[in-house]
Structures are given as C-alpha cells and as structure tokens.
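@channel sequence for tomorrow's demo:
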Amino acid sequence: MDKEYAALAAHPFKAGSGFVRPSQMLPQRVRLDDPAVNVMTDLKSVSVVNVRAKSTMDKANAKMIRYGVRLLLVLDDNDVVVGLLTAVDVLGEKPVRFLQSMGGTHADILVRDVMTQQRDLEVLLLDEVRDAKVGNIVTTLKKAGRQHAMVVESNADGSQSVRGLFSATQIARQLGAQAQGMEVARTFEEIDAVLGGRHLS
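structure tokens (generated this afternoon):
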C-alpha cells in the first residue's frame, strides 16, 4: 500500500442496543385517486417476514405476533416462495379441518399443512400497479374477498420475484378507517364508511 490509512477508534458497545431495519415511510393519509404504490409495502425498502414451509404453525403464529404482521411469505430450503400464510389460515378453520382429516395435535401442524400454496396464488404485476390508483387496489381486494395481494416483477429470465404486498388493513388505516379486525368484510365496510358510502364496484 502506498497510502497510510489510520485505524478508526474502537468504542464499547452499549447494552440494550438494537439494530437498524429497512423502513419504508408510507404516507399517513391517502385518497382513492392517489398512486397505488403509496399503499404498497415495497420489498426493496422493507424486509418481508418469512417462514419455512416445514416450520410448525405455532412458531409461525408466534412470529406474526412478534413482528406485528398478519401475513408471512412461505419459503422452501432454497428461498423459493412456495406459499403464503395469513392470520386467517392460522386462526380459522384450516387447522381444525387438518386435524379432523389427519389426526394428531395442534402442535403437529406444519405451515405447509395450512398455507395457501403457490399454485393457488394470484398476483398483481408491478408494471400495472405503477399505473394504478389506490381505488383500483381496494376494488381488486374487495372483488377477490382477500385481505392481501402480492405484487411481482418480471426478471430477465422470465421468472418472477415478489416485489410488494398490499394489505386491506393497511390501506384502510391510510384512508382513515380504524380497521382492527380480521374479517375482510368488516375492513371494507370501514373503508366504505370513510368514503362516505361511495361504493366501489
């Protein structure tokens, strides 16, 4: 080395320190005519919470609670997305039906037993989302009867990567509704109430 580089001083690490996580600042308030990306969680800016398909459902539920999320991307051992797990999957009828057909106990249920599998998932395309408004996303979720929607971008090789997520609860909050419950219908009733009864079709 031709140049001399001084070493930086080392300092004690303070107890109780956390760590920086990527954060996306979504606007607090949106209108239906605002760009849809204003209500999309962009995975280039925010780390998505995920779980392995062979994890137990109870561990996945604990993870949702710990991170304050209602949806987990389900990955295989090669980090390929193989499904989605929502709070409704965990707390709804799926675990009961699984135990009725397969036997065992609640602790035996794996994520792959109750998740929505990749082959059953429909996604939105990032290029179309970029041209869409918040109202288009609300209508899309309402029509599908879903709380969440995944957004994918196309890769050069023709494959897809999950780029973003929409949550009806998050959108309701940004529109000014107090969407607390799990039920899709209730969330959309609250959105309709905020919009002054203007119904989206």
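heads up for whoever presents: The domain at 36-194 is CATH 3.10.580.10 (CBS-domain).
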